[in-house]
Amino acid sequence: MNAFKLYAVTDRAWTAKKPLTEQVEDALRGGVTCLQLREKNLPFEEFLDLANETKKICEKYNVPFIINDNAEVAARCGADGLHIGQGDICVPLARELIGKEKILGVSVLTVPQARLAEESGADYLGVGAVFATSTKSDANAVSFDTLSEICESVSIPVVAIGGITKENTQTLKGSGISGVALVSAIFAAENIERECREILEGLDWLKS
Questions:
Q1: Contact (CB, 8 A) for 189 and 195
Q2: What is the pTM of this model?
Q3: What's the confidence (pLDDT) of residue 34?
Q4: Burial letters 137-155, b for 16+ CB under 10 A, else e
Q5: Annotated active-site positions, please?
């Protein structure tokens, strides 16, 4: 099974009607294959408590649980992995902090960044934004051609992210990606479980 096929990245901006942990369970029930807990402004202890609770839900569905950016939270909660950006800690240090057996993902925008991340020990890459997105106002656009070149230049899985919705996943066909990562398209949905199922139906072209 392709663990990166439908990769959900959390955002508490849409938790007015339902707690994040309930939204996460809805997403996992809908078929999400990997989940990243992304919290940029939460105090450490609250982040750790949320991580511990979210990890239990992911274990229930046998889905990899990734922490964004915070290696200490990842280590303390026993997460399956860590995802870092270009402005975070370097890949070798991240690998040292989480251990060889854990999953390490790195966000990249260019072929040189992708090659360096793989050479330094990344297990997968996040590439984007592939479409305009309101989730990250500072996100740089990555063209289809660049996305394809990145996929061709590395041997590890590449996950496209940024502005991806149920309606535009087909336009990424032929790029060589292993999966798509979605934020608002999942967590802002009226019915998260149903939305995830429908997104998955449109990803039948991805390698399993």
A1: yes
A2: 0.95
A3: 98
A4: eebeebeeebbbbbbebbe
A5: 38, 107, 136
